[in-house]
Amino acid sequence: MNGKINLSSPVTQTAAAVKQLIAYQNHGQEPEEMPAFYRLTRDMVLVLGNKKDAYYVTTPKSCSCPAAFYHHGPCKHQRKYFPESKTIRAMNMADTLEQADKNLSKMPYQYQRMVKAAREAAESEPLELIGDHKPFKPFIEDEAKAAGMV
User: Which pLDDT value is given to residue 33?
Assistant: First the structure.
C-alpha cells in the first residue's frame, strides 16, 4: 500500500490513502476527523477497521475484511451497508412447489420422472415420520434393464 488507492478489487486501504482520497474529492480540503465509513459510490463503501489504521473496501458482493475472507460469505459490513442485496428470500411450501412446477419442464427427463414418482408416492402414502418406511426407488424399470431382467 504505497498511498495509492486501488478500487478495481476489494483491497484493504490504509487510513492515509483514504485521507488523500477524501481530500481529493473535497477539492483539497482534508477531513478534520476520519469518518467511520465513507461511501464512494452507490455500491462501494470504505469502512474503518477496529484498530483505526485501515479501511475495508465493501461492496454488495465482497468485502476486504478478514471475516469475509475466512467465513466465505457476507460479513457484518456487507449486511450493514447493503441490506437490500439479500438474494435469498423465505418461501412457503406452496410457493416452493409452484416454482418447482414452473422449472420442471426445463430439467432433464430423468429428473422429471424422479420428481413425478416422488410426488405420486407422497400423495399415495399417509404422512408418517416414524414407522416402517421403505426407501424410495424412482427407477425400478431402469434397474431391471441394467440387471438384464427385461
Answer: 79
